[in-house]
Fold:
Amino acid sequence: MNAIRSKVSRRMFLKASAVTGGGLMLSFSVPAFAALGPTEATLNAYVRIAADGIVTIAAKNPEVGQGIKTSLPMIIAEELDVDWKNVRIEMAAVDGDKYGVQSAGGSTSIPRNWDTLRRVGAAGRQMLVSAAAKTLKVPASELTTSGGNVIHAASKRSLSYGALAATAATVPVPDLKTVALKDPTAFKIIGQRTKDIDGPKIVTGQPLFGIDVSVPGMLYAVYEKCPVFGGTVASANLDEVKAMPGVRHAFIVAGTLAPGEVNLGAGLAGGVAIVADTWWQAKTARGKLRVEWKEPASKSQSSVGFAARAAELAKQKPELSVRTDGDVDAALKGAAKVITASYSYPFLAHAAMEPQNATAHFKDGKVEIWVPSQNPAAGRAQAAKALGMDEKDVLVHMIRGGGGFGRRLTCEFMAEAAWISREAGVPVKLLWTREDDMRHDHYRPGGFHTLTAGIDASGKLIALRDHFQTYGSDGKFANSANLGADIFPAEFVPNLDYSASFMPLGTPTGPMRAPRSNALAMVFQSFLDEVAHAAGRDPLEFHLELLSEHRAKSPTPLPFDSARMSAVLKLVTEKAGWGKRELPKGTGMGLAYYFSHSGYVAHVAEVTVTPDVPLSVNAVKINKVWAVADVGSHIVNPSGAENQMQGAVLDGIAQVMGQEITIARGSTVQGNFDTYTALRMKQAAPVEVHFLLSNNPPTGLGEPALPPTLPAIANAIFAASGQRLRDIPLNKSIRGTAAV
Amino acid sequence: MAYTLNINGVNHAVDVDEATPLLWVLRDVLDMKGTKFGCGSGLCGACTVHLNGVAVRACSTPVSGVGTAAISTIEGMAEHPVGKKVQDAWLEIDVAQCGYCQAGQIMSATALLAQTPKPTDADIDAHMSGNICRCATYNRIRTAIKLAAGETKGA
Structure:
């Protein structure tokens, strides 16, 4: 829940140059932004303008479906004051000195870049105005700009940016901090529904994604790792594999991980590489591979075991206190009513549609890597370290990724591809199978919560306790398995106690779309709904009252504005007709809200439950979801933003209905979409999206619409059927501690 | 084994093992990257192509089973009377998020509309449920199919 402030990066690179050069031409062209066309001039690290007025803008951050390759350049184009139809977009080079942080995570791209990129565009505009002042011999103050032209109204003269670009590249570079910005009421690009820049390539099947990269002379690789994380190769039948058709190389990679290390970002995991003329041959040869593994002790772990252990821990004193306000025990003793419940949720895989891959070419002590990554600089550092190389000798190209959801924040496959290329002595494309992808993920951690609440005679929440049974050891949470002291309703309940107990885990965990929030929203927003019903109160009225009493803790109150949350909750319930529409028997509405990644989001779900049958996926039909977000003063691209909201809500529906990764024998059980269910067309409810603009800096939308989806559905199921969903998913195979 | 494949109206001679799935012949032998690998088991639909106009999963179709059937891929849809409408509708509605599954979605939608020019919601559910979109652009896919079918834009 960190508030993000926009500021001009100290590392902002803004240097004018007008040079020509050429890029490495591959069968799949990957232009580096610095490669200039013959008539182009560079205004700064982001903007090139050609003599014909075509403006090329660098997209600084990785694109994995969140639309940032379109929306960040829109911000620059707005302040540069050009026509969007004359804008072309290229992926930027991976260069922190020029572009600062280049990652796609935490819904941070918009808040981190909004102000900076406006200034980048405005600086470019100012340089063009200066060039026009010089050319026309008039004061810059008499000049205006519009649609890629500088205009001198007094003399009715106008010069196109194309004509001015070469001169503009020679004028002094303005100070970003003091450059004049547009009045937002004059915005012509920001706030307009704008189509994804790669749409035409997507619908015609042109090469675009990491998997589509081709390098001359390239061979194809597969890489088999131990099903138990942290395992290494004892021996393998390499001779038999090498005899298979098309196989050029087969070798054991010892790996660089310390014993017991399972963090995917820590280095290179051991395994067996097979390199062949085609990927199909490499994969077919892998079918003959027999490996003797050295397995770590975590091979005894299982989801069944974790559920049993969590049930034991729930009865014991918590290991770690996370937050204590007031006196929960005393408040519960004096409470008019006490409500208890246990909740659980499973591990989840990211399961992006494009399986993990990287193409690497090791040559003369240097390696070039093409990768769909959410965090290419981190992947470069990991690859360099694993290969014992200097980072400057690792050149990384950002390629559009077929989904990310947090998985591609760690790209150990870059190190794998680089290692295999070095050892095989050829460029290789390493492509994982779907099963590799699902069984070698850093999973959204599962978790178990034991909750107690007390209400007073007026139905007010006076005490709340959560004992979280989670993964970790020595008092430390596993990655993304933590409960923060700031999690709502902290600071809104006078007596509150959050605590945790730990289970050691040999499976890597990591961030997944709205990490932590994607699980905690389900628990807290469902339980608060239980409390509202136990108090005999309408959930909307209950929550508006709860949100009205923020007991901010000085000196560092939460960066959470409950008035913004109340406003989105009021708007979404109004749009859904909460309490106003007559619903048929068996149909009900649920509401939920959540604050994450600086975004305020509330949903209402309408659900119909088949009566008189056990709750199941087939018995629950989601009729519609209404979604409202407040992510600040501007929605940069309403088309992309609406798409993110709808996708996040449907992602949440998939999670609550059917997704579950289980562990048996220290390994991931599910390997493909037959056992790990994805949402399909027939389950995709309509999602109606609204944005509430507020006077706050714009923030990101990749994540915050997901968390409240799950409890909105669960609360609607309760309203429709009286049945409370506490263990998700609905088709759960392994029951947790909850009493259903 | 030598095969002659008719792809988007053009014959291509290839020499590959008979068990090689059509997907990998398209992608790695013929360098047609539009058809995507998603699951390798016919579960996700990312590799959907047409054989004589019928949507099939190229990852689970061995090259030896294709015979003389006319193969259509996403690269040929701009020349396909229905496929072009579907592509245009996809752009108009701005369907894609990551875009990886969309070639397969367009191939399935084209096969649907070629057979059922005015599909109902139930037709769309039944025909499109073999194609996973992990970004969950399903609301827009439905709208785009209706647009391509000549219905009004609103879903």
Notes: Confidence is low (pLDDT under 50) at residues 1-31, 734-740 of chain A. The two ends of chain A are 32 Å apart (CA to CA). Chain A touches chain B through 66 residues (CB under 8 Å). The longest strand of chain A covers residues 461-473.
